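One-letter codes give the sequence; backbone shape is given numerically. An example follows:

. . .
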Amino acid sequence: MKKILIINGHPNSESFNLAIAEAYKKGALQSQASVETITIADLKFNPNLQFGYQKRTELEPDLIESWQKIKNADHLVWIHPVWWGGLPAITKGFIDRLFLPGMAFQYRENSVWWDKLLKGKTAHIITTLDQPSWYYRLFSARPSVNQLKKTTLEFCGVKPVKVSYIGIVKTADEKLRKKWLEKIYNFGLKNK
C-alpha cells in the first residue's frame, strides 16, 4: 500500500487549495492508498530559522509530528499558491525549519558534496496561479517550482517530482473549478 502525504501550504486553510487537497485525498483513498495530511496554516511553530545552520533551534511538537509524516511517506503531494512568484512565507518557513542537515540531507566533511537523505520518495507539486501557466513558466521562469522541486526536494533525494499548474484561479467559474478538482481526484486515484 502506497503511503501518501498531502501538504497544503496555503496560509488560509479554507482556500481553494483545501478543495484541491481534499480532491486528491478522496482519489487516493479510493485507490486504497494510506493518506496523511499536513495543513501548514494549522501548525503552531516559528517559521523563522533564527540561527541558520549555526545553532540548532528545537523543533516544536507540530514540526516533530510533521517530520515523522514526511519520513513515513512514499509520495509527497505539495499544494500551494504562487505569490510574488514564490512560495507563501509560512510554507517557506516550514521548509526552512524541517529540511535540515542531518534530517533531509547531510553535508560531507571537507567536501562540496552532500548525501540525500530522502531518497526513495517521489513528489507531485500542485500549484495554483492567478496568471496563465505558460506565462509563469516562460516569462517568470517558475521560481517557486525551481525552489521546491530542484533546490529542496531533488536536493534531498526526492525523485521524480511531477508539477501541475492550476489557473487562472481568480477568474475561474464553478464549472472550471469542478473540472480542475476532477483532474486532481484522478491524480489521487492514480497516486501521481
Notes: The radius of gyration is 16 Å. Residues 27 and 189 are 4 Å apart (CA to CA).
